[in-house]
Design brief:
Structural class: alpha/beta
Shape: globular
Radius of gyration: 24 Å
CATH architecture of the largest domain: Alpha-Beta Horseshoe
Largest sheet: 9 strands, mixed
Strand order of the largest sheet: 11-12-10-9-8-7-6-5-13
Number of helices: 16
Helix content: 25-40%
Amino acid sequence: MKLTIENKTTFLNDYYFQTLCLLYFPGEKFREDDPGENASSFLLERRDSGFYCKTVLKAGERTAEGSFFTEGYVPKVTFSESDFAAMALGKAYLNAASKLFGFALPWGYLLGLRPVKRAKYYLDRGYSEQTVEDLFVYDYGVSVQKARLAVETAALENKMLVDTRPNDCGLYLSIPFCPTKCDYCSFISCATPKLLGLIPSYLERLKRDLVETCRVIRETGMRLTAVYVGGGTPSILDPEQLKDLLSCLNSCLPKEHIREFSFEAGRPDTITEEKLQILKSFGIDRISINPQTTNDEVLKRIGRKHSVKQFFEIAKLAKTIGFSVLNADLIAGLPGDTEDSFRKSLSDVMELGFDNITVHTLSVKKSAVLRFSEDGVYDPAGVLARKCVEYAWETLRSGGWMPYYLYRQKNIVGNAENVGYAKPGMENLYNVLMMEEYSTVFSCGAGAITKLVNGSRDQICRLANQKYPYEYLDTDLGIREPEIKEFFSQYS
């Protein structure tokens, strides 16, 4: 994308302007050395007591202009000068882009992946829910429905976290292996026979790091409250491997304060009654079974190797075995899906008794197979995805499932979001701790990231493990114990 930036203020760098452009021009690249004659342009400057921005956007032969001047504008909450500069830029850009493309972005000019964090910031400072909703709508250009979603989620998160202590922590175990890789997936997951052959060695290394991590949790005075085994597809492990890993976990975990133990079973074609019984016998009380859709044709198109029938059978079996909480994931905007098909998928998981339902929106990452599809996978406006997530919000809330965590991703279709919904008491604490970076989360395994959060929650240190299983096995950095203890010694 050819882009000229004339920023006459000391606020907002060029990267901010470029990132804003990606809201309507996903995947575009920018060349600072040669913006070209037919470039889109921004002018941002201070005028008297406000900030003025003029935007000219070009797409092919089409051109649209937009402008905004903050002088005299009274925000719903206290704004800094940099906030006013961002407002002038954001509103001018939305003005021009909505004319050019014919649709408005549901999340306005918000760029962050965690809009709930922004809502919580203002709620924690005494602003009413209505005031924060108005802030999102009038100051940030967010739709009324998304503003309500953000504030509802923030309010429920606050209730969930009210008893959380500064030294509480979570624990994540990464099992980055899958039987096959879905076409939309860009996560670290290994599905080739050669890489799957690493599982036995990987588990030995993982158990060693797990034992060391649990020891450090005790020695640093942390209270482990939530454990999450994720992937990949953890249920790809065979019954003996599953017993071996969970036996190790059971023997070293500090259990005194654990409130939940979650296992992302994931793909129905990897789950058996024997495996479910093993999970139950080791005290795992929450599992995920993720169909993504209950449309067999859509499953085939995205590379899933299980059937809808398999999902129904495993879901009913898990319900019979008696796990405390069952979670199912759906994805809005999948190629080949329709609004009616998505509605049926949502109805299916609700009727099966899932009390925790996550509605994701398709996000086409750089490494995903779908990104290279010649026939295209979604329209720029993301009409289908947006209709589906709005329907899910209305339907789940009216049925008693409330939003309790939310995050967004780059290249997400329709400028939408991913939301976890749950019946009262069926929320997942780990998801909130991780997403809001509210408490320390220790992580073991390839691709996992430990997030250390100090007691006042104003400092975060991220310690990333090696990305791929073969790197994790080849480089023995351990659990980074010296760095962990150094961080907590600074803020004790």
